[in-house]
Amino acid sequence: xxxxxxxxxxxxxxxxxxxxxxxxxxxxxxxxxxxxxxxxxxxxxxxxxxxxxxxxxxxxxxxxxxxxxxxxxxxxxxxxxxxxxxxxxxxxxxxxxxxxxxxxxxxxxxxxxxxxxxxxxxxxxxxxxxxxxxxxxxxxxxxxxxxxxxxxxxxxxxxxxxxxxxxxxxxxxxxxxxxxxxxxxxxxxxxxxxxxxxxxxxxxxxxxxxxxxxxxxxxxxxxxxxxxxxxxxxxxxxxxxxxxxxxxxxxxxxxxxxxxxxxxxxxxxxxxxxxxxxxxxxxxxxxxxxxxxxxxxxxxxxxxxxxxxxxxxxxxxxxxxxxxxxxxxxxxxxxxxxxxxxxxxxxxxxxxxxxxxxxxxxxxxx
Length: 366
Ligand SMILES: Nc1ncnc2c1ncn2[C@@H]1O[C@H](COP(=O)(O)OP(=O)(O)O)[C@@H](O)[C@H]1O
Ligand SMILES: [Mg+2]
Prior knowledge:
Strand content: 15-25%
Bound molecules: adenosine-5'-diphosphate, magnesium ion
């Protein structure tokens, strides 16, 4: 699906923005503080009902407004009609989400329609930051290709919360603990099976993507860590860890500990690669997910890329842009000077490119 129209009201300094002719590739250029990142945030709000910058909704709403609203109309490959999406948030944190004019209750329904991949200066911490970010990355992919995953994931969260509450209690009822342990084992086993299956499909796409983005990097490898001893099933792992769980008052083993390890030449990529190389690896991870989704017929994802030319050198910006241009995904990309982007975007693909100038919160097509 591709966004054709976008209406933004009161997102940061974007008081009223109307864009009616979006293309497959949309470039937003303008001075610092003009509103470029806010524009990408608005699209993120439309797909995820929240920003990718910080957690506070309040900071997202224009200072003198009480709500912010983003509306989009998107074309679908299967139908001539446009699908409308709308998200409104108020200062109390409440969200109103509408799909095709109908209110929907969960962000998952929205996210399913508009799968987003974000590449910003911060997203580069995917490699070097804590494992939670990498689990989120992995689960994003599983969610978009395996629709039963989300309910199982929710079930797992519920079970672990209950079990941990019980473990924290001074006096533990053995029967109750056994009940939640059994349920947790089932849910944890199910989500791990999905994660593994997805990971196995993702890995070759990542390796292939990286061979184009950075052919000279020492051999890259991805490894999945399920969160407990690989020689045991989850029931056995919970059983073996029971005494420690009771002693420490929480469940210390399981899918909540899963991680992905990236190595280059046998060494941890987070510890040995240069910052520039790490950025490429993160781009590779995000592009590989988009490739896999399209290949599996699950639709294209939309890429939101903040200031790529300042994140990567000329040569690598060219490679990443070449990859995006060949991919067919819709792209929203920002930069300070339009030439910065034009000089790295493949010339043969520049006719699908729409340029917008951003100035003091106003966005005008060029
Ligand atoms: N809640 C808000 N209300 C109004 N303006 C805001 C709000 N939050 C941030 N801004 C302003 O919005 C402007 C645009 O920010 P940003 O989108 O990050 O700019 P850019 O990415 O173009 O450098 C900044 O000048 C910032 O001060
Ligand atoms: Mg910015």
